[in-house]
DNA sequence: CCGATTTGACCTCC
DNA sequence: GGAGGTCAAATCGG
């Protein structure tokens, strides 16, 4: 897989062409969503208005989506999901309310927006890569082979460029609270390194899944702040999380069972005996704490595994603090899937958001999937 | 005591 | 040889 090489991306041009209008449509929709959010209390008892508002938003998204599709399907999946989601919103207003109310919307929009930015800047990667597109300038995927590396040079198996780049996204730093903390993504990460990168003002943080050892979860991510925009993190994910998919891996401890199967339950059980901070299947994750900061500013409202270990003292400038996350409550909105899709990006990032709304709109999905 | 972070050293790739 | 990725000892905190 991960064959190659970037340059097959001429639609880049098209992208640029479409962006202006399309993006403005999307932003417009986002804005409307925010407005809706702020007026939610008032609209709550005015179903008609609420409905109109939702229609409005949906319309924008749908239009945008159509435009996107008309241009470059490869970049549309993320948008598409967002749009589909908008569609779905009509289906269950209560969900929408919750969604909007909880800031997830904001975050989701941020993601979408940044995703677009990435798409533009690097039409080759854009958070929407899948097997076909997976490329990385220097990263040659060697998943298979990377199992038996180790051998060559006498010493410990130290390899690089393993697993290939799966997805790369830029994520806005929290708007509130501590902007130094890289955004959560629903998984538990353990920082294993930090390095100054040539030409970058900020160091790059290296994280791997907390369950790497226990469950052989190969997921890793690199977090780095953008030089020109310290409030934005560029996150590169590599490898997929197997820790919440594998039958042996811990997953979300489904609190109020509902949409999870037996496997998950058993996983949850397993989990219960191993750890308490776990990769909430993104599903839950989103619903629980999409926005790390929102709870409480600086002093951690228990959102991030906070900077426990390591000499706190000023070192990790920037990327520092861990992203170890912890969630707890149960919730269960459709949004959950949004989460799942977005950050479960470990793998086919393209579909990052594909899962999100599948139930609502299958037709779109089918189209999308083939990219 | 256990688990997470820090940090310098080491290793691989270009 | 240099840059980037990973390891692992030291350290810290619950």
Explain what the structure shows.
The protein has helices spanning 11-43, 47-71, 73-91, 93-101, 104-121, 212-215, 262-274, 282-289, 335-343, 362-369; strands at 165-172, 189-195, 204-209, 220-226, 229-238. The chain has ten helices and five strands. α1 runs antiparallel to α5. It has 371 residues and is of the alpha+beta class. The chain is elongated, with a radius of gyration of 20 Å. A hairpin with a 2-residue loop joins β4 and β5 (229-238). Among the domains are: 18-71; 166-238, N-terminal domain of TfIIb (Single Sheet). It has a five-stranded antiparallel β-sheet. Helix content is 39%, strand content 10%. The structure holds a DNA duplex (14 and 14 nucleotides). Residues 145-165, 250-283, 297-325 are annotated as: Disordered.
SSE topology:
Elements: H1 11-43, H2 47-71, H3 73-91, H4 93-101, H5 104-121, E1 165-172, E2 189-195, E3 204-209, H6 212-215, E4 220-226, E5 229-238, H7 262-274, H8 282-289, H9 335-343, H10 362-369
Antiparallel strand pairs: 1-5, 2-3, 3-4, 4-5
Helix pairs in contact: 1-2, 1-5, 2-3, 3-5, 3-10, 8-9
The structure holds a DNA duplex (14 and 14 nucleotides).
């Amino acid at each position: 897989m991960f064959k190659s090489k970037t340059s097959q991306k001429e639609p880049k041009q098209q992208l640029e062409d479409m962006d202006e209008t399309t993006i403005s449509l999307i932003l417009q929709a986002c804005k409307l969503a925010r407005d809706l959010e702020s007026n939610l209390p008032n609209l709550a008892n005015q179903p008609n208005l609420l409905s109109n508002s939702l229609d409005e938003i949906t319309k924008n998204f749908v239009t945008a989506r159509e435009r996107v599709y008309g241009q470059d399907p490869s970049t549309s999946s993320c948008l598409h999901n967002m749009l589909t989601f908008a569609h779905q919103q009509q289906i269950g207003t209560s969900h929408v309310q919750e969604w909007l109310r909880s800031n997830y919307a904001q975050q989701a929009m941020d993601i979408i927006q940044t995703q677009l930015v990435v798409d533009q800047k690097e039409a080759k990667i854009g958070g929407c890569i899948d097997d076909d597109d997976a490329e990385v300038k220097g990263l040659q995927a060697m998943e298979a082979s990377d199992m038996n590396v180790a051998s060559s040079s006498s010493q410990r198996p130290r390899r690089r460029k393993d697993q290939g780049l799966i997805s790369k996204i830029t994520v806005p730093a929290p708007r509130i609270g501590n902007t130094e903390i890289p955004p959560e993504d629903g998984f538990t990460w353990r920082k294993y390194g930090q390095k100054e990168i040539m030409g970058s003002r900020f160091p790059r943080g290296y994280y791997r899944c907390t369950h790497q050892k226990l469950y052989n979860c190969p997921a890793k991510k690199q977090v780095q702040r953008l030089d020109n925009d310290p409030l934005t993190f560029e996150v590169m994910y590599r490898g997929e999380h197997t820790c919440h998919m594998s039958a042996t891996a811990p997953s979300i401890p489904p609190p109020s069972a509902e949409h999870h199967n037996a496997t998950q339950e058993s996983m949850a059980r397993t989990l219960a005996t191993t750890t308490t901070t776990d990769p909430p299947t993104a599903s839950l994750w989103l619903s629980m704490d999409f926005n790390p900061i929102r709870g409480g500013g600086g002093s951690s409202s228990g959102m991030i595994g906070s900077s426990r270990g390591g000499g706190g003292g000023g070192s990790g400038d920037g990327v520092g603090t861990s992203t170890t996350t912890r969630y707890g409550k149960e919730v269960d909105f459709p949004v959950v899937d949004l989460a799942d899709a977005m950050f479960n990006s470990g793998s086919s990032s393209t579909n990052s958001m594909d899962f999100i709304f599948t139930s609502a709109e299958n037709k779109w999905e089918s189209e999308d999937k083939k990219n």
